[in-house]
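During the practical work, I worked with a single protein chain and the tokens that describe its fold, as given directly below.
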Amino acid sequence: MPLVGGMVAFVVVTLGLILWLMVGESTGKQRGLVVTNLRETEVVLTFDDGQTRRIKPGNSETLVATKADFPQKMRVTDTEGRVLFEQSVEYQALSDAEFRIAVGEDRIVFPVKPPGS
């Protein structure tokens, strides 16, 4: 009997873990996305979902990245509203960059991880 009880407990725990992982993936886990301005001028970064941040040269701002909201387009403008560039971004690319990206001269820059990290 103890063997059957142990097997039932194992199945229940395993099913619970599987359900928890499935629900966790679909609940839209939020991550902080750190964006650094590498340009020499202040920029305004806008996401399709409406998030907007003004970022001074050399400074960083944090936005919210939710998996369900991607892919999204990031629009970078100057402070007068002139579009400098737009770029579509995938959630997986942000994840691969450990949610740290930068605004470059003509594109979003994803850092390269050192080998073995």
Observations:
- The chain is about 25% helix and 35% strand.
